[in-house]
Amino acid sequence: MNISKTTIRIGLAGLVLATSASVAAVTTQSFVLDSADAFFAGELEGAAVHSDGSVRAGAVTTRTGLDNVPLAYSVAQRGSAMFIGTGTNGVVYRFDGKNAKAFARTGELLVASLAFGRDGELYAGTLPSGHVYRIDAKSGKAKRFSSPAGAKHIWALHYDKKRGQLIAGTGPEGKVFAIDSIGRAKLLHKAEASHIMTLSGDGKGTIYAGTSDKALVLRIRPSNRTEVVHDFPGNEVTALDYHDGKLAVAANTFKTPPGSQFKPSGAGKPATPARPATRPRPGSGELWRVDADGRAEMLVSRKDTHFTAVQWGNDGAIYAGGGHEGRILRVEADASYSIWVDVEERQVLALDLRSQNPSFVTGDSAAIYRVQSGTRRGAVWTSKALDARFASKWGRLTWRGRGRIVFQTRSGNTQEPGDTWSGWSKDLKQPGAVASPAGRFIQVRAKLPKDDSAELRAVELFYLPQNQRARVSDVQGSRPPSKRGEAPRQPPSPTTLLDLTWKVDNPDRDPLRYRIAYREDGQSVWRDMFGEDSVLIEPKYTWNTGSIPDGYYVVRVDASDEQANPDELTLRSSAESEPIRVDNHPPRIEQLKVHKGRVKGRVVDELGPIARIQMSIDAGTWRDVFPTDSLLDSPSEAFDVTIGSLPAGSHIIALRAFDASGNQANREITVRTRK
């Protein structure tokens, strides 16, 4: 562990370490949660996290689950009744505020869109067959009403009062249709994009459409002339809403096209979902506002989620449902925003917040939520599991805010809280010591009082992680790199230096001190390589072996975190090398003689092996000499080589030999030849 105090600031991007110098104590670290991202990472129960980095009371909701239904995808309300389009069985449910019952069955896979017409009939757009059904609002009887040409997905329906027609956005050919009272579909626009994902209108005959694989918003005027309002980043406008002269737009980036999760089972069989979700994986999303004068402004950008639904509220704020963690953002006119609602389901798929009974529905799994008036009393925010990396002793918990906020903690040794974790501690009403048992992970829970003015701004929790032992391994000794220009077969340049290296696993990243000792292989006495006054902190060392005899040596490296810990907490480890050859002395050329035109002799080294033997006659070119057994593989090699025909006179025959360490021996002999 490090002896400096460390603060860990928590955000969605991970852990950021900020260290202030101190040498007086064992490491005390702390989790600091004081930003919007840090609070966003937690769980909300009636609490709202604001982009200014505060937690306050949020919306009050009541939940009604749809048993055994994976996906509630679309919603429409008439009076006190709410209708929900679902998948993967294509049923429309009716909800009266207390109970939800199956109301109409389309026989399709998914009811992707719902809309009421002028006559009070309910229309349902489906996929993957691309049919529109008309449902009797009293009996629930569903009848196929229209099948627009080329459509396999009816992603969006919008009833335009001025036109007196039902408008349908379809895929995979990117068409917008106007459907008359008897179900005849007339093409209004064929987009370059593959899908029309969402529709809205101004009530005066102008239709707005969002496309996929090109993130465009189109404006279809009453004359049916089509214009591009804006080309947004990403590849899909998943949702939009026109209200009071302005557009709210959800522009997303996905790796998979819409509808790709709905795959045919085979010839003649209905399509089945790859999984009960709108997307195999979450994308990233941006929320935009387009003013009446056409000015487009990006309000919110999130890499961790895409936006599945968007709607203007009666209060002038924009509400956006997320497709990853079951949250609804509330975005103000100044672009500040909050997590307004956080539900247990993964996706918020449709919003109906301007109706008599503000509501929204979810997928994975399907549920209906009614939003109650006023703010929740006694909201709760719970942090994500905070990871101390090692078993830790918890210290003081403190916070900043206003109101009588009460805290609890719980701890454990698994990343996901479960049965093996401790229970929630008793209420901590004032900053003080954490009562949860030691562990690696901890959660903090803040309970806001029954006071709408209560606000949490920052939380800090101190802890002391258990010291971790650094492990040394793989001690190696090698010669320094060869000089440039040496031929590949040339023995290395002789040197008394050995580069010692080793690996270190240092879990808590404490500064380490290394000590090195050596012993001759087969002996038991260790000798220090350098004195105690030399402090080695790098995992490497160059050893000058010039003062020790040739032989094989074992090197031991000891690692200690003493520089970061008091004696009683200091941990050590060591590792030994395989025997390392130290050879600083040249071989000898013995028994050298010339007899009957042949040069004979022997090269001997204490360690070996002999790496090369060469001969030169009269200062001529050096040429390699093979030993008598043709193999250079031992510390003693005999040679017997012909010198060939020489002119009469005196000649100098030079021999040189190298061992594997590059040490060189030289010897000469003079021979006289006659005619």
CATH H-level homologous superfamily name of the largest domain: YVTN repeat-like/Quinoprotein amine dehydrogenase
Structural class call reads mainly beta
The first-level CATH class name of the largest domain: Mainly Beta
CATH architecture of the largest domain: 7 Propeller
Q: Biggest β-sheet: count, sense, barrel?
A: 10 strands, mixed
Alpha plus pi helix count: 1
Radius of gyration computed on alpha carbons: 40 Å
Structural domain tally: 4
Using DSSP, what is the number of strands? 57
Any overview of this molecule?
By secondary structure, the protein is mostly beta strands. The chain has four domains: 5-58 and 380-465, Sandwich (Jelly Rolls); 60-372, YVTN repeat-like/Quinoprotein amine dehydrogenase (Methylamine Dehydrogenase, Chain H, 7 Propeller), CATH 2.130.10; 471-582, Immunoglobulins (Immunoglobulin-like); 588-673, Immunoglobulin-like (Sandwich), CATH 2.60.40. It has one helix and 57 strands. A hairpin with a 4-residue loop joins β13 and β14 (132-135). The termini are far apart.
Summarize the structure.
The chain has four domains: 5-58 and 380-465, Jelly Rolls (Sandwich); 60-372, Methylamine Dehydrogenase, Chain H, CATH 2.130.10.10; 471-582, Immunoglobulin-like; 588-673, Immunoglobulin-like (Sandwich). It is 1% helix and 54% strand. The strands form 13 sheets. Strands 1, 2, 3, 4, 37, 38, 39, 40, 41 and 42 form a ten-stranded mixed β-sheet that branches.
List the helices and strands and how they pair.
Blueprint: E1 5-11, E2 14-20, E3 29-33, H1 36-40, E4 43-45, E5 47-50, E6 54-57, E7 59-65, E8 71-78, E9 81-87, E10 91-95, E11 100-105, E12 110-116, E13 122-127, E14 132-135, E15 142-146, E16 153-160, E17 165-171, E18 175-179, E19 185-190, E20 195-201, E21 207-212, E22 216-220, E23 226-231, E24 236-243, E25 246-253, E26 262-264, E27 271-273, E28 284-290, E29 296-302, E30 307-312, E31 318-322, E32 327-331, E33 337-342, E34 347-352, E35 359-363, E36 367-375, E37 380-382, E38 386-402, E39 406-412, E40 432-433, E41 439-447, E42 455-465, E43 471-478, E44 497-505, E45 513-520, E46 527-528, E47 540-544, E48 551-560, E49 572-576, E50 580-582, E51 588-595, E52 598-604, E53 610-617, E54 623-624, E55 636-642, E56 649-659, E57 664-673
Parallel strand pairs: 1-3
Antiparallel strand pairs: 1-2, 3-42, 4-37, 5-6, 5-33, 7-36, 8-9, 9-10, 10-11, 12-13, 13-14, 14-15, 16-17, 17-18, 18-19, 20-21, 21-22, 22-23, 24-25, 25-28, 26-27, 28-29, 30-31, 31-32, 32-33, 34-35, 35-36, 37-41, 38-40, 38-41, 38-42, 39-41, 43-44, 44-47, 45-46, 45-48, 48-49, 48-50, 51-52, 52-55, ...
